[in-house]
Amino acid sequence: MNYRADIAKDPIMHSIYFLSLLEGPKCEGWVDAADRWLRHVVEDPSMIPRRSNAWKELEKRFKEAFSNYAECERAQDELKKLKMKNDNLDEYLAAFETQALRANIDMNDHTNLRTFALGLPQSLANACIKMENPETYEQWRATVQRQQKIYLKTKSLHSEYGTFNNRTQGQGQRQTSGWVWRRPGGNNPGSNNQNWCGPENRTPPRPRLPPQDDNAMDTSVVIHKATNDKECKEYRKMGQCFECGKQGHLVHDCPNKKTRACTTRTVQIEDDDKPVTPEAPSPSMSLTA
User: Fold this and answer.
1) Per residue in 9-30, pLDDT tens?
2) How far apart are the C-alpha atoms of 111 and 8, rounded to whole Å?
3) In which domain, by residue range, is 80 found?
């Protein structure tokens, strides 16, 4: 503020004024030592290196005495941990440049540029390298801002006009079904939304039933055999079979009766080796004869 004042133009007076502003027990010893050093400089100006002056040398001594050397190490560690979050590029750039200034590093150094790129999302860093291949920090900064702007614009477009629909298929697997138009009420295929469409504007396939087996037993009809005269009259009136109760055939043509007959004949063939004992006629058979 006072660079035009006489006190600022004279390095010795500038240094003495600076020392007069420092107070406190932590700097009193250093101020006394600096004051003695200035007195020697006044007596012997050759103590100052060429192309320098008393103020520049005092400033250098002050930084060496009161600078926190651990701050640079901490700032470098923070740079390695720094990551871009929630698409907030401006916050990441500000934090990276602040820590780089504290660490006193060269922003255009290859290692530091790599650290900057690793803090970005992988897709964003890859897009910057593929599109423009930046070589300096300023190029990286401009490139990443352009690519992030394109990404946000695309993201806004998709959220406003459509979405990329993913449907679950199987356990833990997702199948991409294509772009769908967004309507109030959602894009559920089971809803009344008629504009839902899958890949290539095709509706999802309907579930198919298994093929019908012609030889399968019909379990929907209960087989009931006529066992008395009343049921025989009703079956005869309805044209039903006395054996199975179905229509379309008589008892001597019933498939259930044929099946039992074949089973009985098979048992007789297996018992041919045994002597057959004729059965005694029952009373009813004797009366009929």
Assistant:
1) 899 999 999 999 999 888 889 9
2) 40
3) 70-159
Amino acid at position 268, single letter: Q
Same-domain check for residues 138 and 75: yes
Within a domain: 186: no
Domain count, the chain: 3
Question: Is 200 domain-assigned?
Answer: no
Helix runs in the chain, H state only: 6-9, 11-21, 28-43, 54-66, 69-81, 89-103, 110-118, 122-131, 137-161, 229-238, 255-270, 283-288
In a domain, residue 137? The reply is yes
Question: Helix, strand or coil for residue 280?
Answer: coil
Which tokens hold the place of 158? 């998709």
pTM, two decimals, is 0.40
pLDDT one-digit tens code per residue, 147-192: 999 988 888 887 755 544 544 444 444 444 444 444 444 445 454 4
The CB-side HSE value for 8 (13 A sphere, CA atoms) comes to 5
Residue 212 lies in a domain: no
